[in-house]
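INFO  loader      accepted 1 record
INFO  loader      residues=152
INFO  predictor   begin
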Amino acid sequence: MIDTKHIGLELPAATFEVEKGRLRFFAEATGETRPEYLDERAARAAGYRSLPAPPTFLMAADLDAGTTTMLLDTLGVPIERILHGEQSFTYHAPVCAGDVLSVEARISDIYSKKGGALEFVVKDSLIKDAQGQTVLEVRSVLVVRNPKEKAA
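INFO  predictor   done
INFO  writer      dumping tokens
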């Protein structure tokens, strides 16, 4: 069982730059066809500073920042036992190529269901720009599958 003492734990902050090539790759991989997500001129004509991040691009921010790996290591959970349970986003400002962002994440809840066979870890993250303004709030829920012999 995951110890609930980890509720409130803040993971180390991480900083990264949003890269044009990565944005284009993500847009193409997700089937985005609007030109402002693929072409710099079209992005500027649409009023963006540079290529904008597609809506769910920053879901990968925690992965890129390593916070999910740190979270699993801290909790002692092997990656092969997790499932993606839920994700929600609250956008505050557009993110564009060249932006330098920081990720601040904390565990906001841990609970179990089905007699401990499933445990849920709720992680809230704030993604801030170089000026410290929040551009995105992310809530993610990881589901940990426990072997039947370990379930309470």
